[in-house]
Design a protein that fits this description.
37% helix; single chain; alpha/beta; globular; 13 helices; Aldehyde Dehydrogenase, Chain A, domain 1; Aldehyde Dehydrogenase, Chain A, domain 2
């Protein structure tokens, strides 16, 4: 550790409160681990109650200052932040890979895409208009105004710590809100560098804050605080339920993007080469730690064997190693618990009759690695078919009728993303109408597209984080009735 560490780096990550990078008032720190070695690479500050109180107070002052800035000027500041993020993309990508494990090319793609997200919301902030409504009499005009809802508490995950933060920061700030971001302790440095771009771009002190520490304690404090007016979370279904219950007790509006267990239906008329290639790319991206990752592969029985062979071959080709190394396709999982979880799910499925096509055993090496794993003929009762694996685990089952496939796709309480591969327009129409999911990809995988809504149904979330309506999460409508006679 250097005597004077740079704030926001992977060596020592500090809190941002009131425009100043600071250690926690209690002097506590948590270790930051390198998932490719399992060794500590630095530390992150822990926020206590005194820090949380100062953060909310600063967010109130920051909101008063930021909301008074004209939308066009707010957009200029956000666009400057996006430009800084692009300039620093290579350095931040190295931090992200070291902390989180994904290959550096994927890390850089996440960061550059996050700059696009901030820039897009900057433009949307210019177009938040009210309306004029004719009165019931000629002497009355009714006007509406869209106003920022107030200070926001945002909670972001470790799997995409930059892009998920950018969605919350970009939309809230473009709307004129201040935001306190609770970053992920597992991957704090890259998230801090994103926030630093906003600070360096000229945001007033307190308009953005950054906290780390005990997630349950921080969420409990911020959500209950009357100074926080909106809550936005990306996380697991279990955490989402807790946050929603707490927000409900305090009548706080919220946006939730939660877990998934995405089905991928491959019909007998599908282009199997395309289906296997696209689904393998999406399944093993970020070591399967993606909420939209396909998990339940439902394959028409006439093409089941051929698809299984193609998919297994693609999985076996993947190079798994530290994300900093060249030509790596998949890095380690993000923390020590993940390989143990994968092994438990695999062992349970095999005990119930599933067949290991490849992978399925944790390698004997340092770090949090687990190989790309393909299980065939997985029974519905297996835990992995019911619990979100959130790792490099693909589960294959054959189906005989489209009704059977759709029933299985809709069986779980998850409803985030789903996939369909078919050449039939009739099949596409039937599946996309009947599937219970917030998003459906047909003959392709999902790509970063901030212009489109991103969100789920059922237990997978509430509201969306993309598209033209995403900024409305952070705006409230005020009606003004005027007598003009």
């Amino acid at each position: 550790m250097s005597a004077r560490p740079e704030p926001g780096t992977a060596v020592e990550v500090r809190l941002l409160i009131g425009g100043s990078w600071t250690a926690g008032a209690g002097g506590r720190w948590l270790p930051v681990m390198d998932p490719s070695s399992g060794e500590a690479l630095g530390r992150v500050a822990v926020a206590g109650d005194a820090d949380l109180a100062r953060a909310v107070e600063a967010a109130g002052r920051g909101f008063a200052a930021w909301r008074s800035v004209a939308p066009f000027e707010r957009a200029r500041v956000l666009c400057r932040a996006a430009a800084l993020l692009r300039e620093r993309a290579d350095a931040i990508a190295r931090i992200l890979t070291t902390e989180q494990g994904k290959p550096v090319a994927q890390a850089r793609h996440e960061i550059v895409g996050s700059a696009d997200v901030i820039e897009w919301f900057a433009e949307e902030g210019k177009r938040c208009f009210g309306q004029v409504i004719p009165g019931r009499t000629g002497a009355t005009h009714v006007l509406t105004r869209l106003e920022p809802v107030g200070p926001v508490a945002g909670f972001t995950p470790w799997n995409f710590p930059v892009s998920q933060s950018a969605k919350k920061l970009g939309a809230a700030l473009a709307a004129g809100c201040s935001i306190i971001l609770k970053g992920p302790e597992e991957a704090p440095g890259a998230c801090a560098e994103l926030v630093r771009c906003l600070v360096d771009a000229g945001l007033p002190p307190g308009a953005v804050g950054l906290l780390y520490g005990n997630p349950a304690h921080i969420s409990g404090y911020l959500i209950a605080h009357p100074g926080v007016r909106h809550v936005t979370l990306t996380g697991s279904v279990a955490v989402g339920r807790e946050v929603a219950a707490l927000a409900g007790r305090h009548l706080k509006p919220l946006t939730l993007e939660l877990g998934g267990h995405a089905p991928a239906i491959v019909c007998a008329d599908a282009d199997l080469g395309l289906a296997a290639t696209e689904l393998a790319r999406m399944k093993f991206m970020n070591a399967g730690q993606v909420c939209l990752a396909p998990t339940r592969f439902l394959i028409a029985r006439p093409v089941y064997r051929e698809f299984r062979d193609r998919f297994r071959e693609l999985a076996q080709r993947l190079r798994v190693d530290a994300g900093q190394l060249p030509n790596v396709d998949m890095g380690p999982l993000a923390h020590a618990r993940r390989p143990e979880t994968m092994q438990g799910l695999v062992d349970d499925a095999v005990a119930q009759g599933a067949v290991i096509d490849c992978g399925g055993q944790r390698p004997e090496r340092a770090g949090f690695f687990y190989p790309p794993t393909v299980l065939a003929d997985v029974p519905v009762a297996a835990r992995a078919m019911n619990e979100e694996p959130f790792g490099p685990l693909a589960l294959l089952r054959a189906f005989d009728t489209l009704d059977e496939a759709i029933a299985e796709a809709n069986r779980l309480p998850y409803g985030l993303g789903s996939y369909l591969f078919t050449r039939s327009i009739a099949t596409e129409a039937a599946v996309t109408e009947r599937i219970e999911a917030g998003m459906v990809a047909v003959n392709r995988i999902f790509s970063s597209n901030i212009e489109a809504p991103f969100g789920g149904v059922k237990d997978s979330g509430y509201g969306t984080e993309g598209g033209t309506f995403a900024i409305r999460n952070f705006l409230q409508e005020k009606m003004v009735a005027r007598f003009v006679g």
